[in-house]
Design goal:
6-stranded parallel sheet, 4-stranded parallel sheet, alpha/beta, Rossmann fold
């Protein structure tokens, strides 16, 4: 957005924290940012506010603006379908309109009278229906004839703290069972790359068939035969690249104790929620052990039927989410602006 000419008042990294414990460490700073933005927008009175994701930050801001007569669109529904379903009413009070990425979301919000437009997922438009695996391997200089396993332990520092050692230990165990296995691990920042590299030294301590990348997560998924993915958007990316996967996630014990009671779906991974079945193995918190994850990945590598079942469902999901999202979202925003102009 900055490259397109937008002005950034605060760096996005300030909001890139996840989990109750992690947010509490930065709570005062985050709330001060929200107060400053609210004050500025109430003075400037923009014709429209669009809050993109970050619901715990944006919804409170949207509520203040909406009460002041400034229309507020929320883009990307919070994960009410996975946990914290009680937020539906609060979202309806905060936003004037919601742009939904997934087809099962609009009925949830229409129950509380919130206008919703299903726009599809932008990644489904960006990612090709069929990835060119040999070309992706060539770009990353990965072996063409060996099984390649992608490791995606998360993009945030708080995630890497809990996932890096687990993922590297899993790779070590899998490498002992699948002798020609090769691993690729994309990282989002130099800091998270350093954290993964330190985990490799701790867990392996010797030469290991691993390519550690700075960026290139999509190429890594396109190149891989299977993937181990931290729960989140990366699981959807893996599904769109038709890469069979196992999902894992760990967080602070306090955050997990609070959140586990809010779960009201049997799945947390987006591919499983979209498929409506236990398609992709999920291992959360105590169940996410290196031994269990290595066994799951080994089964995927050796079981053609399991891989093809996932790939077939992933294609269905891709076609469902491919909606020319940018155009649909822009049209929805313009309709809200036209409606507000008519009312005034």
């Amino acid at each position: 957005m900055i490259a397109e000419g937008f002005e950034s008042h605060f760096p996005m990294q300030k909001l890139s924290v996840r989990g109750y414990v992690e947010v509490l460490r930065h709570y005062r700073e985050i709330m001060a940012i929200r107060r400053k933005l609210a004050s500025q927008f109430l003075d400037e009175r923009p014709r429209l506010f669009i809050g993109v994701d970050a619901p715990d930050f944006n919804l409170g801001l949207e509520r203040q603006l909406k009460r002041a007569g400034i229309p507020a669109i929320h883009y990307v529904s919070p994960s009410i379908w996975a946990w914290r379903g009680g937020r539906v009413n609060r979202i309806g009070q905060s936003a004037s309109h919601l742009l939904a990425l997934f087809p099962f979301e609009p009925p949830l919000y229409r129950k509380v009278g919130l206008d919703v437009t299903f726009v599809g997922h932008p990644l489904a438009d960006m990612i090709p229906l069929e990835a060119d695996r040999p070309a992706a391997r060539a770009r990353l200089r990965l072996p063409q004839k060996q099984p390649v396993i992608a490791l995606l332990p998360g993009s945030r520092k708080s995630e890497i703290e809990y996932m890096a050692d687990l993922f590297v230990k899993t790779a070590r165990l899998l490498g002992e069972r699948v002798k020609d296995a090769y691993f690729v691990c994309p990282t989002a920042t130099r800091e998270t790359r350093d954290m993964v590299e330190a985990a490799v030294h701790r867990q392996v301590g010797r030469e290991f068939p691993l390519t550690l990348l700075f960026g290139y997560s999509h190429d890594a998924l396109a190149a891989a035969d299977v993937a181990l993915v931290a729960s989140g958007t990366a699981t959807l990316e893996a599904a769109l690249y038709k890469t069979p996967m196992t999902i894992a996630y760990r967080m602070s014990p306090i955050t997990w104790a609070l959140m586990r009671h809010m779960l009201y779906l049997p799945h947390v991974g987006l591919p499983n929620i979209l498929a409506g079945e236990n398609l992709v193995p999920e291992y959360l918190q105590e169940a996410a052990t290196a031994e269990a994850l290595a066994a799951s990945l080994e089964d995927l590598l050796r079981n053609e039927g399991s891989r093809q079942k996932q790939v077939g469902k992933f294609l269905e999901i891709h076609l469902q989410l491919r909606q020319n999202t940018a155009e649909k979202a822009a049209d929805a925003v313009l309709k809200v602006m036209d409606a507000e102009r008519f009312r005034s």
